[in-house]
Structures are given as structure tokens and as C-alpha cells.
Amino acid sequence: MSKKRNAILALLAAGILLSACSFNESSSAESGETRTIYGTSQKGPYVKGTVVTLYGMDENLNQTGSHFSTRIDNNRGEYSLEKIALEDRYAWLNANGYYIDEMTGETSAQKISLNSLVDLQDRDHVNINILTHLSFDRIRFLVKNGTPVDEAKRQAEKEVMNAFGFSESEESFEELDVLSAGEGDAKLLAITLMMLTAANVGEVTSRLASIAMDLEEDGVLGDTTLIRRIKGLVSMSNHEGVYKQVRENLEKMGATGVPDYQKYLDQFESPWDSTWEHCDNQDEVRRTTQFNDVFYNRVICRDGVWKYYRGARDEGDAPVDTTGKYGTLVDERDGHVYKTLDVKMESGRVATWMASLLEYEPTGGFKEDARYVPGVGREYSGFQAFDGPDLEHMEKTRLDDDTHNQMLFAEFIQGICPDGWHLPYGEEWYFLWNAMKDDYETRELFVYQQYTDSETEKSFDKEKGFYVEFDYNFTLELYDDNGFLLENVWDWNLSREFFQGYRYPVRCVKDWKRD
Asked: Among the four residues 66, 76, 116, 362, which has the most C-beta atoms within 10 Å?
């Protein structure tokens, strides 16, 4: 914590130093030779009045005392430090000002400060952008620990790209430009847009500082919580079409060509690991090292691409062979065909369950609200699961005590299940889980596995699959957190929420003879 606090204080001190610099002033240069350093400064393009300052640095990246400043006089982020007497090979450039937001096309409400570290031996053109800023601290750390500057720059730039799941850029970061159309420019623009998912400029600055400090010592972005959050926000922005306006905004800013930033936003949104870009072994499952989300900490190889995976298999488990494992149930009411699965209980009894979810259309009780995905299943309210009348009718008639007790203590309650099948009791779920909890193959046979391109995507595409959790399926008893039975759901004292508001997938169980 003290290291990060000191780093932030150092940044604040640098900001004070920058504001105190006099324009076009040099500490000393005895040779009399001058040069012009120019380029663009961009978060989005910095606007007129932005201060750009250059500090001379030695081969150990210590400041030499040379410094020069200028102000941008247009809204394209273009700066020029003209006829400066600079003898230093290396330089630190900083831009501090307002910028034009690529998402909104409006000028930012707050200033932002970005850095660039460059070798000026064969270069006069230097851009300042998000990527030069994110690599700045890492380069200095590597040089401080004995790495030559050119090697440190190459390594840091590769690590920054890897942190976002991208391959390294062929161009140096100071050559990239959000208003140009190259592949490296597209990656720069995509990462810039990721930063703009923050709530405000202050959060953008904080996010940049967090990532830069995280990368500084080992070149690995270990803040998985932050990355998951950015992924989620990028996914939301993608699905809401937020990024479509960016192209028009950039053209208004004078872009010579708009790079294909969208493919890199999509790539970032998809699951990736810094060491994986494609996969060869279909259905191979691995645990991710970049993310450790409780639900999405595994990926599966599908058609050469790693996708998030939810299912019973873990790393090293072989794909499940379904040959001959399923039985068949034909629902005579509508002709639907369902997979069934026989599972041997600990008692030795074989229980037959629907492996597919029920798709039968309910006859009452807000049927238009039931979510339905053909080939996957339907979700039912409590009334619909019991195949009962609608709520208004139920409240008017009520069941008399004898009828209520007859249903409550019936051996099985058929409900909306086909003839010869019934709604599962809590004890049946309990026995089923105990029988297969250490058997991933049986558990896998009970689910439609889900393979998605995003940890935030909720896919109902049958081709991708749909994961159905056991603890979300309809059951007749309700239990508290300690496993104690509360009461039967057919008890009218329960809230209307259960019958009217909640929706559950239904797996039916074949009737069996109780001892």
C-alpha cells in the first residue's frame, strides 16, 4: 500500500512540476544545434491549450535537467516543440489537458495526464497515448534493474498488449495513432475505448494508474477483478451498440482512416489467457490463470477457440461419451421427445430422471411470461408447475382442507409432468446428488453445457448450449440454509411470489414404488 501511495504522490508532484515549467525553456545546451520534436497527444485528441512538456533523460532514465514545454493550438492533439537545444538521447514527454471523447464526441469535463518514454536517436516524431502511458513505469523499472532501454521498451510493450489479450504491435507505441487505420492503431483505439467504460475522467485516471502500477514489477496484470469488470462493461457497451458512434466521431476529428477497433473489443470480451490465442484439442477443458470467477474459471476448446465453460468437467477430465447412456420419454400430450437417465442410488434403487427439461406448454397461470427455448426447456411459475388454475381463480375458490391435505400427502404429485411421472421432492434431489456428486460423467449427462464468448453473456442459443443448474430446478419442499424442511410449497400461507413471480425449469421423475 505504501508503494502505491508513494507512486501516486510522485505523479502528483510531477503534475506540479509540469505546471511550473516555462515554455520553450532549456536548462542548457552548449552545442548550439537545435531540433524539432512533434507528434500527436491523445486520450482522445487533446484540445487547444493542452500543455506538452519534454524532459531529457540519460541512459538510466534519470532526468538530466533539460526540459521544454509548449501548448497545443488546435483540437487535433498536434504538438510541436520547435528548435529546442536537446543533447539527450532519451526523453519523457507528458501531455496534460482536456481531450475529445471518442465515444461522445464531446470535450472531457476534467483534464488527464499521459506520459511517453522515447529514444530520440533516430526519431523526431513522438505520439503520446494510452499505451505509451501504460508502459512507462514498466520500462523505467526494467532499466533500473539493468535492462537496456531498447530491450526494456520492447518487453514492456509486449507485456502491455498481453495484459489485454492482444499480440504485440509491430510498431512502437509512440508511432500509434487513434486517428490512423493500422492494426496497431486499432488495438490502441480498442484499449482506449475500454478505459472509457469508466464512469468519469477521474475513474479513467485511477484505472490507468492501477493497471500501470500492477504491471510495473512483473509485467503481469494480476488485478483479475478489474479486468472482469472492464470485460463486463465492454460486453454491455457492445450489446447496446455504444461503439457504433465512435467511427463517426473519429471522422469528425479528422481521422485519415478508422481502424477496425471492433474486432479487438470482441476479442477482449471473449475468454482468453495470456498464453492462449487458439486451441487444437476439441472439448479440452482448462482452468484459466487470468480469471478466477466462481462460475467462469474454466474454458473449453470449441472449434479452435477457447470459450467460457459451465458444466461438470474440470481440467484433465475426459470428454463424456453419451453413447447408450440415455433413455427416451415421449410425452403423448404434445409428442415431445425427452432424454431420460437412470441413476443408481446409494440404496441400490435405480431412479429414472428426465435429463432434458420439460417443454410442455402450461394451460394457465400467466403462460405468456414463461421463458421458453425450443430444444432446451421452459420455465414455469409455481401454479404452472402444479398445472393448477390461474392466481385469480385460486384466490376465489381456495382448496378445502381435505383436498389440500390429499395433495399435500399424496405419494407423488404429477403436476405438469406426463402420466407416470411426477414433480421431484426435495428428498429425491438429495438422493440424486449424493449418488453423483463424485461422478462428473453422470453430472455432465444431466446438463446442457454452456459455451459462451463472454462471462456476462447469457446464451439461449441451442448450438452453444445452455447450462441448467440443479439447485434452480423445481422441487416440492423448501429448506432453510441448514437443510431443515420449512413447509410444502402447496401451503397457501406461502407468498404469492412463489406462485406468480418465480420461474423454474422442471425435470420430472418417473413414478416408483415406495417401500
From this structure: 116
